[in-house]
Every structure is written in structure tokens, then in C-alpha cells.
């Protein structure tokens, strides 16, 4: 319980993490890839119907970024920068960040400024209504070979 002298605690990064592989795949299918100087990112509405959902964020760091300790350091730096600005995440949306290798050596204040700019851009896009949260997201389209409308070649 919060006392009047203490401000309400901001949610931790652990509570807004995107965890399931299926959620990552759904977000990739529903979003368009965007770029910033140090990372690529995807913004997709969440697919849960009817119930309001909080924002979620996922981080990826593939082997192309370096050895395990370097990838872990990249993710730690990004988590810390996001943790300071969790309140900027658009509610009802999933945000996935793909860092580039320069995040490892980028000055932290510059990384944090880029993440703030990216979160503001994502919030503006979410507010614009390019996606409507709570709306069912179709899965990837699969072509049925038995579709009568398709001619066999």
C-alpha cells in the first residue's frame, strides 16, 4: 500500500516483458519493421479481446551481435534504459526491439535518449490508431492447395 509521502511505484521491467515465442511471432506478423540509428523495432496491438491490457516489451539479441556476454550486456543496458521510461510504453501494444551492435559501445545517455524518442514515436503511432488494440489480429495467411479458386500449374 502506498503512503501519501511516497509516490506510486512504477511497474518493473519484469511485469511488462514479452515472454512467449507465440507472442513474438504474432507481433512480427502484425507489425511493420521500423528503424532507428541503433535498433530496429516492431509495434503491434495485443490480441486479447475485451480485457484492457498493459503494454509489453520484448528484447532480442541474436548471435550476430557477439558472444553471450556481449549480448547479455546489450540487453542489460536496454532494459535499464527502458525501465526508466516504462510509463511511455503505449498500453495495449507489444513493442519488440532488435538492437544493433553499436548499442554495446554507445554512451548510455545517448542510448536512453534514442529509446525515449522511439517510445514517444511508438506512442504517437498507437494514438494515431494505425492499429486498434483489442481487435483480433489475423495470423499469417496460409494458402490451401485444395482451394477451388486456384488453378493448378
Provide a compact summary of the structure.
The protein is 31% helix and 13% strand. The protein has 153 residues and is of the alpha+beta class.
Overview of the structural elements:
This protein is an alpha+beta fold and 153 residues long. It has a single domain, classed as Ribosomal Protein S5, domain 2 (2-Layer Sandwich). Helix content is 31%, strand content 13%. It has three helices and four strands; from the N terminus they run H-E-E-E-H-E-H. The chain has a four-stranded mixed sheet with strand order 1-2-4-3, sandwiched between helices. Residues 131-145 have low confidence and may be disordered.
Give the overall silhouette. globular
Biggest beta sheet summary: 4 strands, mixed
Strands of the largest sheet, in order across it?
A: 1-2-4-3
Total strands:
4
- Rg over C-alpha atoms, rounded to the nearest angstrom: 18 Å
Rounded mean pLDDT is 81
Task: Kindly give the count of domains.
Answer: 1
Which CATH architecture is right? 2-Layer Sandwich
Q: How much of the sequence is in beta strands?
A: 5-15%
In CATH's first tier, which class applies?
A: Alpha Beta
Order of helices and strands: HEEEHEH
Fraction in helix: 25-40%
Structural class: alpha+beta
Low-confidence stretches: 131-145
Distance between the termini: 67 Å
Q: Total helix count?
A: 3
Q: Any idea of the CATH topology?
A: Ribosomal Protein S5, domain 2
Amino acid at each position: 500500500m502506498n503512503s501519501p509521502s511516497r509516490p506510486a511505484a512504477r511497474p518493473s521491467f519484469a511485469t511488462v516483458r514479452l515472454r512467449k515465442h507465440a507472442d513474438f511471432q504474432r507481433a512480427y506478423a502484425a507489425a511493420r519493421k521500423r528503424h532507428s540509428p541503433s535498433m530496429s523495432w516492431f509495434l503491434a496491438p495485443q490480441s486479447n479481446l475485451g480485457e484492457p491490457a498493459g503494454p509489453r516489451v520484448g528484447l532480442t539479441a541474436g548471435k550476430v551481435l557477439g558472444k553471450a556476454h556481449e549480448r547479455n550486456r546489450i540487453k542489460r543496458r536496454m532494459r535499464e534504459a527502458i525501465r526508466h521510461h516504462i510509463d511511455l510504453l503505449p498500453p495495449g501494444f507489444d513493442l519488440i526491439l532488435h538492437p544493433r551492435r553499436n548499442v554495446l559501445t554507445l554512451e548510455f545517455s545517448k542510448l536512453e535518449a534514442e529509446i525515449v524518442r522511439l517510445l514517444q514515436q511508438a506512442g504517437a503511432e498507437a494514438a494515431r490508431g494505425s492499429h486498434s488494440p483489442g481487435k483480433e489480429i489475423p495470423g499469417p495467411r496460409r494458402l490451401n492447395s485444395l482451394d477451388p479458386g486456384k488453378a493448378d500449374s
